[in-house]
Structures are given as C-alpha cells and as structure tokens.
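Quick note —
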Amino acid sequence: MINPQNKNEALALISDIARSFDITLDEIGAYLNKNPAPEKVSKWLPRILGYLGATFVFGGLALFIGMQWDDLSSPARVIITYGPGLIAFILGIITLNDERFIRASTPLFLKSAILQPTGMFVYLHEYADGNDGQLAALLVFGLVAIQFLVTFCFYRRTSLLFFGYLFWNSAVGILMDRAGVSGEILGIGLGLSIMIVAWAMDRTPHRAIAPFWYFIGSIGLLWSIFDVVEHTALDMSYLAVATGMMFLSVRMQSRTLLIVSTGALLGYLGYFTDEYFKDVIGWPIALMVMGGMLIGISYWAVKMSRKIKTA
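Predicted structure written out below.
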C-alpha cells in the first residue's frame, strides 16, 4: 500500500511502518509535539476586510460622482459610471485565471453588475433621443445578460450565472410586458420558468443559488395565481395549488419552496375566513377552526421538512 486513498488506508500504512521500525506511540507523539503543524490562518477575517474595503471604495466612488455630477460633461459622466464597471468585469475575469485571487471575482462581478447598467443608462440619457424608458431598460438588461451568460459559458462561475440570469429575467419580463401580456400571465409564466431553471441549477455545481431562484419563482407564481382566482368561483382552487406546491417541495427537496408554499397556504386561509365568515355568527367558531388548521399545517410542514432533510 504505497499511495493511500483514504484515512483508513493511511492509518494502516502508518501502522505497518511503525511495526517495521519498532516505533512506539510515545515516540510518534513526541515527534509531533516537537514539530507542530503550522496554525491555520483564519479565513473569514481577510474575506471580511476585503469586502469592507471594496464597500468603502464603491461608496467613495459613488459620493465623488454625486458631488461632481453637475460639473461633468456628457462623455465624463459616461466614462465615470460605465468605465469602473467594465474594468471591474475585466479584473473579475483575470482573477478567474489565478487560483490565488479567484475569490475576489464575486465582489468584482457584483460591482460590475451595478455600474455597467448604470453607465449604459447614463449613455442613453445623454445621447439617445426619445423618452421610452422601458425600451432603454430592455436594451440595457438584455446586453448585460448576454455579456454575463456568454462569459459563464467559458468560465462556469456561479456568480456569472447568477447575475446573467438576473438580468435575463428582467429583460424577458420587460419584453413580455411590452408585448401586452397581462401581469397575471406574466407572473405565472415567468415564475414557473424560474422554478424549472432553479430545479435544473439544483442538480449542478451551481446549486448554491438555487434557493434564491426557488424563492423568487414560487412567490411570483403563487402570487399571480392568487390574483387570477381572487373573488371568483375558482378561489377555492388556490387551496389545492398551495397544497400541491408543498408536496412538490418534498419531491424537489427544497425547504425554500416549502416555506413559501406554507406561507401561501396560511395567507389563503386568512383571506378565506375573512371573506366568507367575518360577518356571520359563527365567526368566533371559524377563528378557532382556523387556529386548529394552522396548528395542523405547521405540524405538517415540520414533518415534510424532516422528509426533505432525510431524502
């Protein structure tokens, strides 16, 4: 056994060597104490200081721009907003090519995701004719989404995927609104698509951002469905939708989805009792029944959460 592959094999190899050279445990312990392993440097402190320093730099830049804005020419306004964002994006790509600085890429891409759209809006405001803010937002968000997603195809960094998909959904939402799609249909379609993509992300190395998109997609979907069925003969169907979403959360092994669907179900029960039982004599009884249902739902949600944990 020359190259141990796990801890047990390594211990077996150490044991064989100790027997071969008649080495005792006391001698091993004395040698380890004589040559202690170097202390691990705390990893969280440099990271916090790095984020804090980046925050100060970003805040100082924002204050400087605000103080000098009225005295700047149009080209200077574009350069001072878009330029740092573009530089941050380039530096973020450079850090991805060096393992020593790869963690610095996320704050750089965050800075870029804020400053580049800002600079593009400033450019359109200074040089473009017309007053169509929605078209300007569609153009800006679409271009930035393409930039981040294309870069993600080469570097496979989670932060690139997150910002790219964020701008992509913003552009798609604006495009659907310009096409005359109603708010409810837009919310259902976009929310459902976000949940599907989040489910796909959850099965990749980029699963860290899946809970965020589960949260956004499920809220948009459930809220839009409620807007469709509210004050109609189909409002009872929302109970089945929220309950089905709870079962779906177990299948998808998502606690985020479970929390959102549980909140939606509790909110619907409050709406239902207020809508149909508030002005009747049985209102106090309805409140007690609702309280019992809430207790039962909370117990059920905890039980389902445990299933997700053990799945």
